[in-house]
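R.M. (postdoc): so does anyone remember the format we settled on? I'll just put the structure tokens first.
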């Protein structure tokens, strides 16, 4: 199992869990190997990944611990059936849609562990909207890709600043080693996007340019403050 999966499993705090979008079931199997769990539900929308998941479960002799279910998002879970829900390997917008489509189930969950591949800022904001607090966040660098892993508890917390939503309050506080690299990459992409829009636009969309400039300022200010701290 890879480092990203191990770091996700390390965040599990309770004895019952669901792995949504399980694919090959590696998170569920690693959790069964590393944690003292009483119940694991491995769910996926498609039948083929579940077939692979079941084969791997049999390989590790976890048939009595891990149950496979086919269905969309959290729709195959019952109220209060599991304490921890893991959703990893999806875009942030899809993760938010999954949570929105099962609001009652989400309210009954004690812990969400999310690893969005995009729109991470929106995921942080949505967690606060549904009164979850982000208790831990880390970044794993694996195979040339940065993976954010967010652990959230079902208790409200104060909203973040815009900078904290974009970069992650806990990552900033912990001076995560990858954060300035990611900020620099995002800054470069935003500047390039702005240049492309200005160059190709027949009529300039000032609102869109202002939104990009706002993001550019957030990353530039973070990097400037980061440089001052390490000097």
């Amino acid at each position: 199992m890879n480092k990203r999966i191990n770091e996700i499993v390390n965040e599990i705090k309770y004895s019952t869990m669901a792995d949504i979008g399980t694919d090959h079931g590696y998170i569920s199997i690693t959790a069964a190997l590393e944690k003292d769990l009483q119940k694991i539900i491995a769910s996926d929308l498609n039948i083929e990944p579940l077939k692979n998941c079941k084969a791997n479960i049999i390989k590790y002799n976890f048939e009595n611990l891990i149950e496979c279910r086919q269905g969309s998002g959290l729709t195959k879970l019952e109220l209060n059936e599991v304490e921890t829900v893991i959703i990893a390997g999806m875009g942030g917008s899809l993760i938010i849609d999954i949570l929105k489509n099962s609001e009652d189930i989400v309210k009954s969950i004690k812990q969400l562990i999310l690893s969005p591949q995009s729109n991470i800022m929106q995921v942080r904001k949505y967690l606060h909207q549904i009164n979850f607090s982000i208790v831990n966040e880390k970044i794993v660098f694996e195979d040339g890709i940065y993976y954010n892993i967010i652990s959230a508890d079902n208790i409200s917390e104060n909203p973040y600043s815009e900078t904290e939503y974009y970069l992650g309050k806990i990552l900033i506080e912990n001076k995560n080693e990858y954060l300035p690299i990611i900020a620099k990459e995002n800054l470069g992409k935003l500047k390039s996007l702005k240049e492309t829009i200005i160059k190709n636009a027949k009529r300039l969309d000032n609102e869109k340019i202002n939104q990009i400039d706002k993001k550019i300022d957030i990353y530039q200010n973070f990097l400037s403050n980061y440089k001052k701290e390490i000097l």
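R.M.: ...and that's the designed sequence above, right after the tokens. Also worth knowing: The chain is about 50% helix and 20% strand. The chain has a mean pLDDT of 94.
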